[in-house]
């Protein structure tokens, strides 16, 4: 028996455990101080009414002989795939139902999709980055190259013709930076991929935060993208499904074998998302659901605005926040990410995430999120203003 030695090449992730350890130590030493956590990447608002009603109804159906459901189609029920296709139609993107694959969230599909690619492919990942892109490729023994995202390119790297990549990861709006590509910039990536016969794995997990209609929410809004891109999306941040688990992956038929192979992979290794959850997900796309989730998204966006405006007042450079729940700031006074983390915890008891945890280009930067409560966000920003303005 030989094990997959590639797992030895994975870097240990100490980011969130170190954050938790440092916060716990501080709280033990200072039990009277109120710590405000603006580091969380999880949502806090509950599921909307339309979803809850649909979930209850589906639960009841499961208890009745005539409406009970067992195994469903691995790629998702038609009612949900239809709802997803209608959602894309609103942006003039036409999808056939067999290009839509319902998943239990974006993270698993982003990892699983690698099953259908050769081990020899070279991989291009932005730095800083959502760590899943790197780790899933390291597990498979693939070589990973990095596209530098930094202050110079506003954390939106563009293709470098001298770099030859087969698999390209793009996340827009981006985690951790909150930066979002415009159509011209994304077109450059699509053109590069078409020219190099590469595939783009486009992570649209935060598409619902895009506020400006001229900015793309889906890569298929870019001409030619159906010939070179797979898109992953999720209801986690859109509708608070982080614990409920549902997403969707688009593999266009124009990608030839990839669509067929993904279907084969899913029907072999996956048995679908529970019927009850898919009914809840369907309700997200209903008129009522869309109105209700917008309230939650706007709640987070309002928090992001409060953070962004405070940073402006304090003269702290940042990106994100407008079309994203994440705000990515440059640590003041040339502090390192962890120095700034300690400084904020000690001085004003605000917790964020050190940028260094997302890649080498994250050093000197810091991520704040808008997923907290409005009251806490306001209080945290008042504390910021006191020490930085
Ligand atoms: N993609 C990005 C960029 C994320 O930040 C996250 C979650 O934080 C995911 C995907 C995973 O989403 P899901 O909950 O659908 O697995």
List keywords for this structure.
389 residues, alpha/beta, Aspartate Aminotransferase, domain 1, Aspartate Aminotransferase, domain 2, 2 domains, 4-stranded antiparallel β-sheet, globular, binds pyridoxal-5'-phosphate
Quick overview:
By secondary structure, this protein is of the alpha/beta class.
Description:
The structure is a single chain. The chain starts with 14 loop residues before the first helix and ends with a helix. The strands form three sheets. A seven-stranded mixed beta sheet has the order 2-8-7-6-5-3-4, with helices on both faces. Strands 9-10-13-12 form a four-stranded antiparallel beta sheet. Strands 1-11 form a two-stranded parallel sheet. It has two domains: 12-41 and 289-388, Aspartate Aminotransferase, domain 1 (Alpha-Beta Complex); 49-286, Type I PLP-dependent aspartate aminotransferase-like (Major domain) (Aspartate Aminotransferase, domain 2, 3-Layer(aba) Sandwich), CATH 3.40.640.10. The relative contact order is 0.17. 39% of the residues lie in helices and 14% in strands. The chain has helices at residues 15-29, 49-62, 78-89, 106-112, 132-139, 183-196, 236-239, 257-269, 275-284, 287-314, 337-348, 374-388; strands spanning 36-37, 100-103, 123-127, 144-148, 167-171, 199-203, 229-234, 247-250, 318-320, 326-330, 350-351, 353-354, 365-369. It is an alpha/beta fold and 389 residues long. Strand 5, helix 6 (183-196) and strand 6 form a beta-alpha-beta unit. The longest helix has 28 residues, at 287-314. The protein has twelve helices and 13 strands. The site of pyridoxal-5'-phosphate has 13 residues, from helix 4. Residues 41, 105-107, 130, 171, 175, 203, 205, 234, 236, 242, 247 line the site of pyridoxal-5'-phosphate.
């Amino acid at each position: 028996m030989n094990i997959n030695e590639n797992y030895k090449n994975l870097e240990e992730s100490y980011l969130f455990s170190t954050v938790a350890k440092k916060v716990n130590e501080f709280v033990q030493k200072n039990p009277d101080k109120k710590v405000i956590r603006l580091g969380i990447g999880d949502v806090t608002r509950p599921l909307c009414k339309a979803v809850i009603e649909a979930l209850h109804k589906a639960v009841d159906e499961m208890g009745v002989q005539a409406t009970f459901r067992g195994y469903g189609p691995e790629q998702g029920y038609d009612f949900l795939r239809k709802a997803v296709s209608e959602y894309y139609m609103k942006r003039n993107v036409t999808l056939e139902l067999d290009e839509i694959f319902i998943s239990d969230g974006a993270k698993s599909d982003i990892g699983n999709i690698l099953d259908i690619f050769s081990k020899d492919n070279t991989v291009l990942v932005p730095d800083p980055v959502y760590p899943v892109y790197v780790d899933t490729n390291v597990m498979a023994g693939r070589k990973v190259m990095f596209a530098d995202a930094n202050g110079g390119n506003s954390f939106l790297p563009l293709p470098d013709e001298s770099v030859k990549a087969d698999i390209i990861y793009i996340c827009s709006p981006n985690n951790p930076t909150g930066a979002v590509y415009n159509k011209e910039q994304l077109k450059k990536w699509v053109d590069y991929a078409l020219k190099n016969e590469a595939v783009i794995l486009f992570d649209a997990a935060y598409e619902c935060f895009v506020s400006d209609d001229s900015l793309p929410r889906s890569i298929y809004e870019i001409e030619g993208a159906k010939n070179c891109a797979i898109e992953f999306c999720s209801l986690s941040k859109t509708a608070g499904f982080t614990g409920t688990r549902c997403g969707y992956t688009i593999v266009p038929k124009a990608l030839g074998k990839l669509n067929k192979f993904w279907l084969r992979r899913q029907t072999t290794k996956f048995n679908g998302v529970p019927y009850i959850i898919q009914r809840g997900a369907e309700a997200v796309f209903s008129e009522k659901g869309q109105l209700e989730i917008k309230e939650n998204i706007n709640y987070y966006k309002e928090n992001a605005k409060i953070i962004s405006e405070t940073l402006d007042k304090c003269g702290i450079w940042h990106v994100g926040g407008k079309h994203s729940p994440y705000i990515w700031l440059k640590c003041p006074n040339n502090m390192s990410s962890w120095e700034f983390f300690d400084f904020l915890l000690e001085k004003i008891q605000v917790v964020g995430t050190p940028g260094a945890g997302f890649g080498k280009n994250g050093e000197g930067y810091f991520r704040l999120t808008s997923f907290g409560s409005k009251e806490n966000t306001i209080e945290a920003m008042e504390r910021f203003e006191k020490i930085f303005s």
